[in-house]
Amino acid sequence: MAEKRYSDAIRIVLLCLAWYAVSSANNVVGKVLLSDFPYPMTVSMVQLFSISLYLIPLLKIRDVPKCNLSWRYYFTMIGPLAFGKFFSSVSAHISLWKVPVSYAHTVKATMPLFTVLLARIILGEKQTTKVYLSLVPIIGGVAIATITELSFNVTGLVSALVATLGFAVLNIFSKKCLRETGIHHLRLLVILARLATLMALPVWLLYDVTRIWDDSPMLHSTHAPRILALLIIDGACNFGQNVVAFTVIAMVTPLSYAVANATKRIAIISVSLMMLRNPVTIYNVLGMLTAITGVLLYNKTKYDQNQTLKKQAILPYVRTDTNLERHHVTFQTNSILHPSASSYDMEDYFKIVPQNDEFQGEHIHVPNGTPRIY
Fold first, then answer.
1. Residues 306 and 320 in one domain
2. More confident of the two residues 124 and 17
3. What keywords would UniProt list here (predicted)?
4. Which of 112, 180, 313, 326 would you label with 148, given CA atoms 20 to 30 Å apart?
């Protein structure tokens, strides 16, 4: 048993290192590509097509089951998710094109802020005071980084915020989709990638392709083969970081994944500063570190809140009935899609199903730590 835990720990560390390396490479390659090839929609299309193409053999190897979803569900849930995935991806690439990688990822640290606001507006979910306070260093860090950013661009800032907001919305509704359908997360990913590619194809042909066709200097330059190679590498890196992220999240707890994801952002910022050498000030670095620290603090506070709510959910049964053998307690953990370029998230389910007649058919379901009685 000890040897298995030791081998699992080594495997997780190696996977995290691979995740950081592939993600950093994806962002550096993407920045270099967009500097020579300023067509973010085309870069997004290549990434979506790469996911659709490379996932085919992986789904067969893992024997991922197919799904039967109604046309109505496609129109009401899958379609909007696919469109949102494409729109958020394009926005993220616009920000990567307009501002340095380090600043773009600092702005993306505001994801918890959007998640809390959207959960309050859409789901009516309230947070503890500590959770709200943990958002302060995130906002403050991003503000400091923005004020001191030497290569600041309004379009880049707005695009990064829009992309972060889009990914937060996608995260919430992707979780809902996975809960309602029970579809495998890899199957959902390939469905969204294919549908997003088809939906965006007309717009891409009319907008980006015509502009690329008219860009004679770029098409006939000596950089054309290099740009094509970078497009292929970028698509492969994007696919790789998603697959590694899926594997990591299947092996670790939600808190561990959140910390690993924040650490990944630090790795991307550090590698981009070393490789691309964009100028930064000490205050700029301070703002980045403050924002990332805020993300780590938010993850820990949110986890503590969920654990407290789970304990509160079980207490009424324990107090009214000391015969715990009359109750059946189950824990389930599902992998939930995070539709950002690299993310999945985890969600715990905690159920208490009483076996006596008095409580027959009643159970407590706790998604995201919010108790609901059915």
1. no
2. 17
3. Membrane, Transmembrane, Transmembrane helix
4. 112
Domain interval for residue 319: 311-373
> How do the residues of the chain divide into helix, strand and coil, expressed in percent and rounded to 5?
75, 5, 15
Q: Where are the beta strands (DSSP E) in the chain?
A: 327-337, 344-354, 364-365, 372-373
Q: Is the pLDDT of residue 152 over 50?
A: yes
Residue 78 CB contacts under 8 Å (≥ 6 apart), including other chains: 69, 177, 191, 192, 195
Q: What is the largest CA-CA distance in the chain?
A: 79
- How far is the C-alpha of 180 from the C-alpha of 34, rounded, in Å? 38
Q: Position of tokens 């709510």?
A: 309
Residues 39 and 212: beta-carbon distance below 8 Å: yes
Evaluate the CA torsion angle 143, 259, 234, 21 in order and state its sign. Answer: positive
Domain boundary among 258, 292, 310: 310
In this predicted model, what pLDDT tens digit does every residue of 40-87 receive, in sequence order? Answer: 999 999 999 999 999 889 899 888 888 888 889 999 999 999 999 999
Angle at 81 between CA 291 and CA 165, to 5 degrees: 20
- Which pLDDT does position 317 carry in this prediction? 52
Q: Are residues 88 and 230 in the same domain?
A: yes
Q: What is the signed CA dihedral for 298, 345, 50, 158, rounded to 10 degrees? A: -30
Beta bridge partners of 337: 344
